[in-house]
Amino acid sequence: MFKIDNELKSANIARTVRFTEPLFEKLNKIAAENNVSFNLLVLQCCKYALDNMSDEK
């Protein structure tokens, strides 16, 4: 299980994001296995990606 950033639980801005069917299915399965909402998982993944980006271009 991964650590949930509680700051993300209060996110309230809705935007549309499109996923491929296989990616959606994988993310949805991970969310269900970890007892979190799909939206919270996606926010957590985005935050992790941004926090761990390389500064190299």
The percentage of residues in β strands lies in: under 5%
Q: Helical residue percent?
A: 40-55%
Counting H and I runs of at least 4 residues, what is the number of helices? 2
Q: What is the residue-averaged pLDDT?
A: 86
Multimeric state of these chains? single chain
What is the structural class? Answer: mainly alpha
Order of helices and strands: HH
Count of individual beta strands: 0
The span between the termini is: 32 Å
Largest sheet: none
Radius of gyration: 12 Å
List segments where confidence is low: pLDDT < 50 over at least 5 consecutive residues: none
Overall geometry: globular
Please tag this protein with its features.
single chain, 57 residues, mainly alpha, 2 helices, 47% helix, globular
